Amino acid sequence: MSRKRPRPPLQILRPPRLACWLLGRFGRYEKEYSIVGDCAEEFGELARHGGRARALFWIWRQALSAAPSNIALHIHFGGAMLKNYLIVAYRNFMRHKLYSFINVFGLAIGLAVCLLICVWVQRELSYDRFHEKAERIYRIEREVFRENLYSRWPIVGAMYKQALIDDFPEIENAVRFYRREFAIKDSRNVVRVQEMFAADNSVFEIFDFGLEEGDPRTALADPGTVVLNRKTALKYFGTGEPLGRSLAFESGGNWVDFRVTGILREIPGNSHIQFDMLVSMSTFPKEAFPDWRSNYLYTYVLVRPGVSKEDLEPKLRTFVKQRLEPHYGDLLRQGRGIDEVLKMHLFPITDIHLHPSVNWEVEPGGSMASVIIFGSIAVLILIIAGINFVNLSTARADRRAREVSLRKTVGAGRTQLRFQFIQESVLMVLVSLVVTLGMASFLGLAFNRIFDENFSLSFLFQLKNVAVLLGMAVIVGILAGLYPAFYLARFEPARVIKAARSSAGTKSLFRRNMVVLQFMISTVLVVGMLAIIKQMRYVQSTSLGFDKENIVVIRGRSRQIARGFDAFRNGLLSSPRVLSVAGSSDIPGEPQYGNGSIDHQPSGATANVVFFEIDYDYLDVYGMRILAGRNFSRDLAAERNGAAVLNEAAAKKMGWTAEEAVGKRLVGGFAEKEVLVVGVVEDFNYKSLREEVEPLAMMLRPEGILTVSVRIRPGDAGEALKDIRRTWERSFPGEQFDFRFLDDYLQRLYERETEMRVLFSVFSALSILVACLGLFGLAAFTAEVRTKEIGIRKTLGATTASIAFLLSREFIKWILLANAAAWPLAWFLTGRWLRNFAYRTEIGWPVFMAAGLAILTVAVLTFISQAIKAASADPVKSMRYE
Amino acid sequence: MRELTLLEQIVLSAVWSLGDEAYGVAVRRKLKKLLGKNINYGTLYNALEQLLRKGYIIKAPGESAPERVGRPRIFYRLAPEGKEALWKTFELQKTIWNNLSDFVENYKS
After folding, report:
1. Whole-prediction pTM value?
2. Nearest chain B Cα to A11, which residue?
3. Residue contact A34–B48, C-beta within 8 A
């Protein structure tokens, strides 16, 4: 304001703005006596005569010396009022127990869900951040683009590590993890198969995993050294001191002693890589990793401080060009540059958990989408609970109208009143918070159940989390209290006192919209739940192109399986409970290892395909449908030299029908030799239903067998398993019997969806519960307000039913409206989610109808009791009401 | 007559003596001259407020000025009751000191 004035000729020395502002704070002094003006004038004079410094000193003293007493006054009067507000809030709370209960309970549920999800989200986001150097650690990953097959490879060859360190001064250190399994004999000669990683000693320099005992500088330096955690040490050594003792590892049929050089500290649960035991990488000679293209090691690099991913990643191209290109000749066949087909990435370790690779990931990992979905659900349920508070406060506003009028009459301003009501709602939320924390033990249980986590409640009560919770409660309280506060503070004393009763209670567009919003959210959640359930049912019931029931798969670990397979098979087939046995390199549901291209020389047709290596019985065991041609035949010796069965997609990719494909000679596969197509099978889903069926070539190659599939007679799985195990142990001594039922195994592909289904069910139920609580409150209130009207109607001959309907009509309309509003949104969102699946169910109108009907039913049940109670009241009493 | 504190008496006298020029800064300067020490504005306004409430002075906002960052000067004038009160104060003081003439004459010696 003062800035707009024209500048006066005389130079005027202005006092500091902050000092002026402080002086102006002193309420009536500025208004009544113009303190700022006086001080400014004197400041100007002082500055001219005594110097600017003195003037500044003077005005600050003026501003500050008055401050303490002013603040004290504010606090004194504020405190007195606060006490009054608290008393009034308490009385209101106790007088209207039903409404208080609805508010507190609803908010408590909302907060509980929020809390649960916040804890979960916090944990999801915290993965791998406990490493001191986390920001500088990256995993080396590659992306391979074939024309129709894209794959992300978080694993690389063993030679990358040293080459990377040699080529890039930006890389300070690197470590490799090599997943291994060893049979270990403990002190009592019990043999166990132990999963572990082989790792370079630099693991302790890069990560913060650390040793409880032992020297981290040398623990894994020498061959044949091992470090393990306490729990595992207990398993092998009992309570004795493990450090310095040795463990017998099975290696190539011999028992080799490994020296224990350290005790690992417990690995935090939020590490993407988990292990009980590490052996030194140097145990494996260089010769064990001869090939650049063999991929089996997770390799992490530590970059030097100040080096960014953006800087270093482009430089990896030269690495690809110089080191890798010579080994990837086959990828370049269509005249593409290596840059187009093979990319190397630095993947930040803190991102691994939420953006895991589909194949070859260390542990299953989480997903960013889930974090976002559940984060939104938490907020939505809190909104529903907040709306209850808003609606019930405004609906009952006329109960408070007299209080407001009286306060205004004796001089309360709107700001003061607003503060009072916001404070009241914050208080309500804080009470709910106490209830929420009371639920905490139950919550913790639910949490561990749902997320399969190990959480102790102490996590909730850490100072930081308590502060966050309180902050959250205050924010929710302020947001929920905002509308009621403004609404209530608006009452005009004169009108309220004149009118015996304001009409504030019954009709309000705002309130209707809020209820509609609540039920809209509930409807969306219910539709979401139904969509997930329906898709999961589809996933389970849809035909995959093979018969997944009654198949036991056993994963072998060594080439021993291929060598002894025939004997094993014959042994098994003698069991009456076994129908057929097949061996293969791959089974449906597992990440597929081999891919490459097949070519048809005369025509030049080519396709990138996934390769399976199978034996004669594979198609049989899985019950695949042959569209054209036939299965492999043991009688035709020539087939041993190269025969393949394609799937329909592969034939199509080559430009053939199934019939045309049969008899064609192709070049491709691992051996790069000629193979004859003997048959084409119908497409079957060997990956999850999220993905389209890719072209597939199944080669006859019994040497490649690593996995055994056994079809058993239905109904006697237990006995059949015993037979299989006996035969297995006889045929492959020392090989672990690692079996699964194929249908269980396939079900695991949808773990995330299964978890989501549980959570959606819980959350949609909770959202309906909270919304219905509010509805119940509103119904009770409406019935109360209309007591007299109902009395009159009854006297004039209305039936109980007609009155109950009259009272319910409005609510039913609201819920139908909410449904209508929710459907397009739900349709859009479920559609988005379903697009994750290449094979998906339709979410048609029955799903929406079912959701709507379910919610309507629950809602009607909620308010009908109130409506009937009001409608069946004695009219005489009703007329006397008030 | 309502009792006046000493400060109120002095402020009342200062306002009277400043005539048409009695506003915040001027009053404070006058007080400084009379008392030989600085008075905070808070103290001054409190005294002025008491005088206003008792109806001894009248307040009139004047024009704003650029050296006052746009704030108006507030001028004070003695109300008839104020003149009366100032006179009564004078008489009271006179009575007090007349009764103590012994003290006044003998203090220095």
Report:
1. 0.72
2. B67
3. no
